[in-house]
Amino acid sequence: MLGQSALFLVTSSSAIVVLFIFYFIIRDAIPFFQLEGIKEFFTSARWYPSASPGEYGTLAIFIGSGLVTLGAIALAMPMGIAAAVCLSDILPFSIRQTIKPIIEVLAAIPSVAFGFFALVVFAPLLQESGGRILAVITWLLGLPAGGLLVIVLADLITGRIREDRRNGARAVLFVCFGGAVIGLLTLISSRLNDVEISSGTNALNVSIILGIMAMPTIVSVSEDALQAVGRELREGSYALGATRAETILKVVIPAAGSGIIAAVILGIMRVIGETMVVWMASGNAAQIPEPWYNILEPVRTLTATIAGDMGEADQVMGSARYHVLFAMAFILLAFSFLSNLASEWIVLRSRRKVGG
């Protein structure tokens, strides 16, 4: 009985720590809303905490955080899921055993190293040759994705054609779809080639680096979800005459859908909670880009603001500038907590579904 109580105490210690974190952050966040109200905090874009009187509008900071997160996930989600599908169902086992550890090594690199690379190497490159880099990135991302799309479409369309005519039809579709993909990529890259980037420390820089940082989480969790589908469903699909593309698209991915969504949510949490990279390479400008989705302009995020302003706030007297940082931390913590609950619920639902 004593041993069980000790184990229960050890197990529940982490939950107690989380509750204390919530308590102390809420305790220091409430005075700000009592002093300044809620309207200015959520609707104003004027962030001048050192002025007299101070202005504490965080709308531009929320938009900066959202823009960086969306950009990073737009990069990491398709590449991560595609990599997970390749590791799970396309590449030979020996190659998978070599590539997966290399991808997971990315998660072990300190964020300050990514931030240093973004600030010292990538930002000057963006500023000097931004258009050409965007064009190259378009080809690097578009060509494999387009090639995969062409293969899948050709496989799906020719799947019901007689076997003696299938190879000829597939070759025709490869030429037609491949030409369309190359033409589209040429058009997009030619337009991007003329783009000039005034500052390399901007939302695009941070989004690319954060996308790379989120990749190991998305790849690893998605690949585990795809592996959990089991051989029975795959063999049953092949036995019914489905091709590999049909099996992956119509059987494996839908069966692992909950796990893949959980992987994307975990990737979002990894991105939105990152501090060092956004502080070093986002430009830290508390402004709403023109237009708001322009990722080539500097932005400021919640985590960078909290880390950067905490040292300048009056922590002894408890000024509004001090409490507003806790209000921002509370919003960030609540979002992360709800995202974690959602991912746990999705994983639990996936296990019940797979387990029958």
From TrEMBL:
PANTHER family: PHOSPHATE TRANSPORT SYSTEM PERMEASE PROTEIN PST (PTHR30425), PHOSPHATE TRANSPORT SYSTEM PERMEASE PROTEIN PSTC (PTHR30425:SF1)
Sorted UniProt keywords: Cell membrane, Membrane, Phosphate transport, Transmembrane, Transmembrane helix, Transport
Keyword Membrane included in the entry's annotation: yes
Keyword Transmembrane helix among record annotations: yes
Primary localisation category: membrane
Protein known as: Phosphate ABC transporter permease subunit PstC
Organism: Eiseniibacteriota bacterium
Similarity section: Belongs to the binding-protein-dependent transport system permease family. CysTW subfamily.
GO cellular component: plasma membrane
Domain ABC transmembrane type-1 span(s) in chain numbering: 62-343
Residue stretches in coiled coil: none
InterPro entries: MetI-like, MetI-like_sf, Phosphate_Transport_Permease
GO biological process: phosphate ion transport; transmembrane transport
Protein location: Cell membrane
Pfam families, sorted: BPD_transp_1
Transmembrane segments: 7-26, 59-85, 105-127, 133-157, 169-188, 208-226, 247-272, 322-343
Membrane topology: Multi-pass membrane protein
